[in-house]
Amino acid sequence: MQSFIYDIPTKVYFGPNQIDNNLSNELKKFGNKVLLVYGGGSIKKIGLYDKIINELNSANLQVFELSGIEPNPRHTSVNKGAQICKQEDIDVILAVGGGSVIDATKFMAAGRYYNGDTWDFLIGKAQFTNALPIVSILTLSATGSEMDTGGVITNTETKEKLGNSHPMLRPKVSFLDPTNTYSVSKYQTACGSADILSHIIEVYFYSYDAMYMLDTVMEGLMKTVIKYAPIAISQPDNYEARANLMWASSWAINGFVGQDKKHAWSCHPIEHELSAFYDITHGLGLAILTPRWMKHVLSSNTVDKFYQFGVNVFDIDKNLSKMKVAETAIEKLESFLFKDLNLSDNLTKLNIDDSHFETMAERITKDGPLKGFVDLSKNDIIEIYNACL
Amino acid sequence: MQSFIYDIPTKVYFGPNQIDNNLSNELKKFGNKVLLVYGGGSIKKIGLYDKIINELNSANLQVFELSGIEPNPRHTSVNKGAQICKQEDIDVILAVGGGSVIDATKFMAAGRYYNGDTWDFLIGKAQFTNALPIVSILTLSATGSEMDTGGVITNTETKEKLGNSHPMLRPKVSFLDPTNTYSVSKYQTACGSADILSHIIEVYFYSYDAMYMLDTVMEGLMKTVIKYAPIAISQPDNYEARANLMWASSWAINGFVGQDKKHAWSCHPIEHELSAFYDITHGLGLAILTPRWMKHVLSSNTVDKFYQFGVNVFDIDKNLSKMKVAETAIEKLESFLFKDLNLSDNLTKLNIDDSHFETMAERITKDGPLKGFVDLSKNDIIEIYNACL
Which residues, 6+ apart, have CB-to-CB distance to A301 below 8 Å? Predict the structure, then answer.
């Protein structure tokens, strides 16, 4: 188990109507000029946009707007936001949306203090020296960006999807109102839930000493997603289901559960290439990849962790052989993802063939094997992609 | 499930040797004058005192000292500390010890800004207007004071043991080095573990809608204590055991797991009267009381929560009747507390008889029944005390 520094100071208002008064009070702590960033029109449809504008106006905050942030947010949008922050001398960014919007604002916030293309933060050319404060209002339970330090941005010119992180990008305050996710479609609810589950799986599967306590927390978070995602899909306005998914999304990836590990993720980098090439929904890509990755890395060396996963998350009979439990656990995960969540179970259904697999695997392993629970060579990754067809 | 505000900004350095450089850097953020507060000589015995003094001296911090904080810290000690803070214009308090020391510094920190007896904070006569920042170095896994907002102080003149809390009392930074607990005796390790477990039980047993996700986290924390406390007792320098207990102690009570509940605790107020009258160790009192309280409140109305507790924490066969699972769970808890932890299983062994039970129960219920998982009348409480003989 590694030593660590726990430092997750994001303040969260959880529950309905928490933005009343609290939103403007929190924003004012940082100044008067607010850049409101959002995606498409969904926040207008659910009445959230009007509610926010009323709240900000009645508090005499000066509001600038940037809408149209893409589902896989593009560096060109980030550049636009950073430009507005500079021109208008913005004090605080208010991100309203899901992970895409919040991710984009993170690099706008840093871009405010950088003279150059914000893409430089993703390719490691620019250093994080300062960032505007971010306040978020979450409308989709998935990426956990509302409480974490990272973001993922797509460059459609280079067909690259890259992530980076820094503590100064963590939102200062986030408003989590489960009722704001009532209108999220069945499909997006399913993809978001697969994303949350994947974040936990990426940390949970680990080859070295881990802190048992944090494993138990992760098992609880996984059980939460597995229990409530199907309920949220069949009953979109079930508060209990939406609330559990929302709080689980934050804790899956805010840093708490993986602090004792120097972990390297496996499925996320493999998926990022997929969605960089094909612009598919991140959570869907993860759902298709994860069980194939599991089958690829399951062996007598790794079976113990799968056994723990099967017994503690899927309640599989602990008296079965370890390998039997492991295989059953993967089957149960598939059943959850492809039956309960009703997600497409292969890439062929998404009109994706093997034509770019070689290039994608090459890009992932350009600096050597992909380190993780089990290190993966270029060929391993191609095999995993092929198993997804 | 209740709405809530999550705001737990304590920064934690976890692991061995984290105080090197980090301690002085963190203290300096608040100023140059440090009041070092500790209990008896144990921090000298383990070499921690010298290490701290060296660290502070080499950073040119000006150090004042207050030692001798009692295991059940007294308001007279708190007054002394507050007095030093005023006289010497202290910038930051460094608490080195277990919950007693950290609890005491919380009211010193507030007392710095109050002209009067610090006991006034406990009886509600004084308001919290400001408080000095607190940095803590934890040496005992038990109360969770290192990351929470509250503290409990004893007034030996009035035989009262009272608690109060305020967000401004939460330590800004805490250093959690599991190796600093290697020298904690078997008995204190047992009492501390019983205390951690009790904090979770107090929140877990709740009559209304609770957030499932947080229940799973609590079940994980309870399993962690039950797994590692016996290991820490038989192998005092087992890092894994000490680390899991330490981090569990913080998360049991920092506020996270109970945020969706307007919870009222049961065993703690009943125990506080016990230790106010008899100065027994808090964790031991809780260990003796908790199973008796459980038996007293178990009924067909409350059996569901006990069933969940039995199945998910003690892995009892879920196919048994709910009442059977509940009763078995209480037996298993008793076995853990009195066999695995080797704690005394009744008050008679502590030379306590029923002579003050009436008075103690009267004090607890002076404003009406004790609200909680099941509301308790004066007679209920007397029955619970009597069951402890």
Answer: none
Nearest CA among A128, A35, A32 for reference residue A87? A35
What contacts B258, CB < 8 A, 6 or more positions away? B203, B214
* CB contact set of B333 (below 8 Å; sequence gap of 6+): B290, B291, B294, B314
Containing B151, the helix (H) or strand (E) segment is: strand B150-155
For residue A11, list chain B residues with Cβ-Cβ distance below 8 A.
Answer: 5-7, 9
Torsion of CA B111, B116, B121, B122, to 10 degrees: 120
Q: Which residue of B has its CA nearest to A318?
A: B315
Is B211 in contact with A247 (Cβ distance < 8 A)? yes
- Asked if the C-beta of A224 comes within 8 angstroms of chain B's C-beta atoms, the answer is yes
Asked whether A135 and A173 are in contact (CB, 8 A), the reply is yes
Identify the three-state secondary structure at position B89.
coil
What are the extents of the domains in chain A? 11-180, 186-387
Chain A residue with minimum CA distance to B259: A14
Q: Which fold has domain B186-387?
A: Dehydroquinate synthase-like, alpha domain (1.20.1090)
Contact B6 A11 (CB under 8 A): yes
Q: pLDDT averaged over consecutive 10-residue blocks of chain A (389 residues)?
A: 94 97 97 97 94 96 97 95 98 97 98 98 97 98 96 91 95 98 97 97 88 96 98 98 98 92 87 88 95 98 97 97 98 98 97 96 96 96 98
Alpha carbons B249 and A218: distance in angstroms, whole number: 18
Q: Where are the alpha helices (DSSP H) in chain B?
A: 22-28, 42-45, 48-58, 75-87, 99-111, 119-122, 186-204, 212-234, 239-253, 267-278, 282-297, 303-314, 322-334, 357-364, 378-387
Identical topology for domains A11-180 and A186-387: no
* Fold designation for B11-180: Rossmann fold (3.40.50)
Residues pairing with A165 in the sheet: A150
B13 contacts chain A (CB < 8 A): yes
Hey, is B171 helix, strand or coil?
A: coil
Is the Cβ of A14 closer than 8 Å to some Cβ of chain B?
Answer: yes
ipTM of the complex: 0.95
